[in-house]
Recover the amino acids of this structure.
């Protein structure tokens, strides 16, 4: 059971906008910034969003993050087939004194 | 280009030990904290351990505390994970991960491709 809660699956069609939720508590999301990762099977996970809303260089502005209270969200606009992957949220947990991940949301592009 | 290359994975019997290595290139290794993150096949990501750039600050997940030891050699641009008393539930892909800062500040900004550890008799 993951400390952060993510829906196991999501789907969309090319061009659509999809959002992923990530729910935590005051010991993690409530007081720390949230990061999002994209993981395709057999490849190295990739940082998509950090510090709730910031994108590393090279990440398209189709990807955007937000945070409110003890929850965070990742949105992908203009969905593309290449976006089909697993998406994970992560943050620091002050009670566990270490990073924690969500269980991941598998995105299917139909 | 940042590269993190893990090695040392393989098949090991329960109760035995294994040492993972990670060789880094493309950045000043001595300036950044490093971590190990694992993924059981078909499951989610789990942080295992992390240490600061100067090895002063070290943290472990409760699931491996007392059994695993993380270390680094900044002169060799290398990160290590000594895994003792291995259990079946330690079976996973192990990723070497770079932190964005010198302390354990997150995020993880670069990941290796991973090395598979299988614990089975």
């Amino acid at each position: 059971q993951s400390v952060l809660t993510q829906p196991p699956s999501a789907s969309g069609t090319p061009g659509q906008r999809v959002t992923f939720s990530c729910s935590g508590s005051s010991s993690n999301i409530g007081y720390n910034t949230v990061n999002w990762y994209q993981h395709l099977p057999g490849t190295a996970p990739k940082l998509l969003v950090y510090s709730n809303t910031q994108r590393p260089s090279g990440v398209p502005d189709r990807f955007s993050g937000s945070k409110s209270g003890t929850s965070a969200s990742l949105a992908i606009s203009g969905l593309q087939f290449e976006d089909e992957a697993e998406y994970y949220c992560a943050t620091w947990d002050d009670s566990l004194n270490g990073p924690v991940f969500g269980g991941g949301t598998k995105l299917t592009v139909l | 280009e940042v590269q993190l290359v893990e090695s040392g994975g393989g098949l090991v019997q329960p109760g035995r030990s294994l040492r993972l290595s990670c060789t880094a290139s493309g950045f000043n290794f001595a300036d950044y904290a490093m971590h190990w993150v694992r993924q059981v096949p078909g499951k989610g990501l789990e942080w295992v351990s992390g240490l600061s750039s100067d090895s002063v600050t070290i943290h472990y997940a409760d699931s491996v505390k007392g059994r695993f030891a993380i270390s680094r050699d900044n002169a060799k641009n290398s990160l290590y994970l000594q895994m003792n008393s291995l259990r079946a539930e330690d079976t996973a892909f192990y990723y070497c991960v770079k932190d964005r800062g010198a302390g354990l500040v997150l995020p993880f900004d670069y990941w290796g491709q991973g090395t598979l550890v299988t614990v089975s008799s």
